[in-house]
Amino acid sequence: MILRGALATAAVAVLIVLFAWLRASGHEAAAARLVGADPAKVSEAAAGRALRELRAAERTQPDAGPAQARGAILAARGETAAAAREFETVVAAEPHNGLAWAYLAGTLRELDPARAAQARSRAKALLREVPRAGEG
To answer: What is the rounded CA–CA span in Å between residue 130 and residue 120?
Structure first.
């Protein structure tokens, strides 16, 4: 009887986690649909809705994905300081995320050239570690 109760509790916990993940994925997918392939061409209204979707995704299941997507949208809109803050959050949470380091370098190029150079160096080192297709 105790084992059955423990299994039921574990099953409920798994379902809660799965529901949260699916809900966060839905918010991220909605944001991607709003932005499309080119964040620089998105309207202010669509960008605002996409940023709200990404905040909702982060509340449901915090990870660096929504922050990285927000940074890309903000950078495309010319909000480089806000974008840089998002990318700083991502690299703090995921120090081996070479793409986030590259985005950070781009947003800091004029704001903080010394930090941009550090970020660019880190991005190059990390992205060099990724094997290319056909390499062992």
So the answer is: 16
Q: Which one, of 33, 43, 115, 17, lies nearest residue 69 by Cα?
A: 33
Task: Kindly state the tokens that stand for 115.
Answer: 């930090």
Place of tokens 């392939």: 37
Q: Say what the pTM is.
A: 0.62
**């370098």: which residue's tokens?**
105
pLDDT(41) > 50: yes
- What the block records as the tokens of 51 is 């940023």
Best CA proximity match to 100, nearest among 127, 74, 78: 127
For residue 110, count other CB atoms closer than 10 A to its CB. 9
At residue 132, the 3 state secondary structure works out as coil
Amino acid at 135: E
